[in-house]
Design brief:
alpha+beta; Conserved hypothetical protein from pyrococcus furiosus pfu- 392566-001, ParB domain; 2 domains; seven-stranded mixed β-sheet; ParB/Sulfiredoxin_sf; ParB/Sulfiredoxin domain-containing protein
């Protein structure tokens, strides 16, 4: 898998990301599938993990999650935490090796950072297994793929100690545009520990699709055209102004390279009848037609 380090401007500060280009597979084990009637399925191999149905007027999506999720990274060893590796590269290595993960042949981004405060608190889905993601009120939060442990769980207590020592690994999230939120891929107990420690925005690594070649080239063309215009504007000014224009151009290029794209959704095999059969078995309330 080819990878490229990127530093881009975000909120006036430099942020770091990895651009990943895996060679396969074409269709990953962990994927989003869609069919008619705004029916959505997240599956891992043959295991359905999340059934979702968008309500009329796209005001939100009703979801039911199912047990059976397998983490896309192995359990963290104590020596790994003590060593404090470059976590972005560490997660990239594990995702590349995982046969039941979300990577497929495409361009991906793995970036350091964390969602806004509200995504971890008011809009974090803490109930299991049902949840309504209320887009009408701007929902944009985090969806765990397994039930969250209680705060007194021994693993949570161990992670609380790591957080106080500053050694805890980041939480791994996957941005899914079909939900307008993040799926929690790894770090469920670290999330509970961070909440117990009163951390407003836990440290995270975010996985998302990057722009395809054609779209990226189109956007870079706009950036370069704007830079040519800007160079003409500052040509008669001093060296500091010209240097500032070049730095702004470099920042704009890196932001395009680090721009995330929509999540790929595959057609659901069997279409509506297959989704309805799953819903009837696991979430009968979703099988009923939604009302306006």
């Amino acid at each position: 898998m080819r990878r490229t380090d990127i530093t881009y401007a975000a909120g006036g500060a430099g942020q770091r990301a990895l651009a990943l280009e895996p060679v396969g597979p074409r269709e990953p084990a962990l994927r989003v599938e869609m069919t008619d009637g705004a029916r959505l399925l997240v599956r891992q191999g043959e295991q359905p993990l999340l059934l979702g149905r968008v309500v009329p007027w796209h005001q939100g999506v009703r979801t039911v999650r199912l047990p059976g999720y397998r983490s896309v990274v192995p359990s963290l060893r104590a020596e790994t935490v003590r060593r404090q590796p470059d976590w972005t590269h560490w997660f990239a290595d594990r995702l590349a090796d995982c046969p039941h993960g979300p990577l497929h042949a495409d361009r991906w981004l793995l970036r350091e950072g964390t969602p806004p405060h509200y995504a971890w608190h008011g809009e974090l889905v803490t109930a299991w297994p049902r949840a309504y993601l209320d887009w009408g009120h701007g929902w944009n939060g985090v969806v765990p793929l397994r039930p969250l442990s209680p705060p007194d769980d021994p693993r949570v207590k161990a992670y609380r100690r790591q957080l106080r020592e500053g050694s805890a690994a980041p939480i791994l999230l996957w941005w899914v545009t079909g939900l307008d939120g993040w799926l929690l891929l790894d770090g469920h107990d670290r999330l509970v520990a961070a909440r117990a420690e009163g951390l407003g925005r836990p440290r995270a690594i975010i996985l998302a699709r990057g722009l395809d070649d054609a779209t990226q080239e189109e956007f870079l063309g706009y950036v370069d055209a704007n830079q040519e215009h800007r160079r003409a504007q500052v040509a008669h000014l001093g060296a500091p102004a010209r240097a500032a224009a070049e730095r702004a151009h470099a920042d704009a290029v890196s932001e395009v390279i680090a721009e995330q794209a929509r999540t790929t959704a595959w057609p659901l095999p069997g279409g509506v009848p297959a989704w309805d059969a799953l819903a009837a078995r696991h979430a009968p309330e979703l099988a009923r037609e939604p009302r306006d």
